[in-house]
Amino acid sequence: MNAGFAYLDWLVLAGYLLGITTFGLWMARRVRSSGSYFLGERKLPWWIMVGQSFGTGTSAEMPVAQCGAVYAGGFGTIWYQWKNMLITPFYWLLSPWYRRSERTTVAEMVSDRYGRGAALMYTLFAVFYLVLTQGVLLKGAGKAISVATGGELISPNGVVLAMTAAFILYSFMGGLISSAYTDFVQSLLIIVLSFMLIPLGLHAVHGMSGMRQTLPEHFFRVYSAASNLDAFTIAMLALNGLAGIVAQPIILSCTATGKSERAGRIGQTYGSMVKRFCTIGWALTGLIVAAMVIQRGVTLPDKEAAFGFACRELLCPGLIGLMVACVLAANMSTCSNLMVNTGALFAGSIYREYFNPAAEDRRILLVGRLSGLALTVLGILFALIVDQVLDAFLFTETVSAFMGIMILGGILWRRANRYGACAGVLAAIGVYYFLNYRQCGGHLQLVYPWLAAPFGWSMLAGFAALILASFLTRPEPAEMVEHFFDNMNRSTDHEGLPEGHPRPLAAKLGQDLLFLDLPGWLKKRRWAGFPSRYREDIIGFAVAWGAVAFTVFCAWALMQIGR
């Protein structure tokens, strides 16, 4: 339909870039300290938290990867993205962990629980994760934009290089404040991105009935074994998501920066739920492309070209520019948060911890800005070499899941110690690479295609090693463990208390945590006053499951149309 990237497209794209950069710099005026730069002074309202969580957790490689997966295997492959659907209600239970830690980064939480050595191990992982994640999402956007414009505008790697400059300026100046507020604005564009191709695509393939006449029946099942996602694979993907989310370096900024614990819970849970709903749009677009390719007698060289193909064939001048702006929005919202978190991690857990413990706040702020910028460059380099976006995306989440053994072990079990935590992570990584090395015929590589069985055995080995090593070695100092868990048992909704005045116990406010020290449930006193002590967890958890059921029902009902 389109004839390349027209003047109107350039106008739309330039307007978006100018507008979002100006808005981000305007918000940057509120940055006065490292606390406001890295955490927004923990005063963000719940609706900004929803937009931040959705925008940060959604990037251009996701619609690219999901659309390509559905194009090749049917609607049932939606579970590649929906693997976290079944764990989304648990976000309501896990979110307060990070706010109650009263720390700037997850690495600092690890230090409080296990000591400096384990914190350094986590920090090295986090830098690796942030660099790889930036590379994956930049390449995803590059593929989408390049194919959508017919390759006439710029190559995928050219897109990677060009778009990076767009988010750096306001992130460098405004930190999390600029990132969070621009995330909210850009989240609206991501929603547009998720659904704008559908009406034009349905018209092109003669509606749902036309697609049904063209594609096999199993392509329209919400769950289908033909998509190579059986119940075991989905269960392993869900485990991957649950263990991975708790260790992701960005999780603290997405849960601990709100005005209250509930703001963080709502932001992380329902920002993620909006993403699950948008995934339906990405999957439906994949079905449309599968039908278009057959009806028009063409082929695609790469399944991940499906999204770009739809853009190129369906959109007219002006809408192409809007689509490119939406793809950039999806990436800039995530990249800006990653850049801020990378700076916080390096400044707090490396520079201050090992090089300048007495550094003033202004120096920490400067180091955070510069290190975030420098490590973003490494993400660009990874983007230039990564090929398959879906494999790389699952790889980064899998590495995060292995680190999740350390985080989950330390919060769910008081007896876990630094030796068990490190043993668990190393055992999981070792088993993962050994099994994949065998599975791939003795070929050693950094990124293996994700397979359920090797992942499952790796996680089992990791948790077993955590438990065994913790029992065989000396426990952590009692006062360190007690201080950590005392923080977890106190609400952070009452801040600014007089010095020496402890925060109120969460139990008195109905905010005790169900997912904390699980062996403690074997003691009678843990059950005392159960409904009132855990009111916030119980009600919020139940409501979140209702939202899951509604989302799955919507997908199922959509797939019944035209039967």
CATH homologous superfamily grouping of the domain at 7-25 and 36-387: Sodium/glucose cotransporter
From the alpha carbons, calculate the radius of gyration and give it in angstroms.
23 Å
Instruction: Report the CATH topology name of the domain at 7-25 and 36-387.
Output: Sodium/glucose cotransporter
Task: Let me know the number of strands.
Answer: 0
Mean pLDDT: 84
Q: Sketch the major β-sheet.
A: none
Based on secondary structure, the structural category is mainly alpha
Give the strand content.
under 5%
Termini Cα gap: 29 Å
* Total of helices: 24
Low-pLDDT ranges: none
Task: Give helix and strand order, one letter per element, not per position.
Answer: HHHHHHHHHHHHHHHHHHHHHHHH
Helix content: over 70%
Subunit organisation of the chains:
single chain
Give the overall silhouette: globular
CATH class type of the domain at 7-25 and 36-387: Mainly Alpha
CATH architecture call of the domain at 7-25 and 36-387: Up-down Bundle
Describe what this molecule looks like in 3D.
With 563 residues, the chain is mostly helical. It has a domain at 7-25 and 36-387: Sodium/glucose cotransporter (Up-down Bundle). It has helices at 7-27, 34-39, 46-57, 61-73, 79-82, 88-94, 96-100, 106-114, 116-148, 156-195, 197-204, 207-214, 231-245, 251-255, 261-296, 306-314, 319-355, 361-385, 389-412, 418-439, 452-472, 478-488, 530-533, 535-558. Helix 10 packs across helix 17. The longest helix has 40 residues, at 156-195. The relative contact order is 0.17.
Topology:
Elements: H1 7-27, H2 34-39, H3 46-57, H4 61-73, H5 79-82, H6 88-94, H7 96-100, H8 106-114, H9 116-148, H10 156-195, H11 197-204, H12 207-214, H13 231-245, H14 251-255, H15 261-296, H16 306-314, H17 319-355, H18 361-385, H19 389-412, H20 418-439, H21 452-472, H22 478-488, H23 530-533, H24 535-558
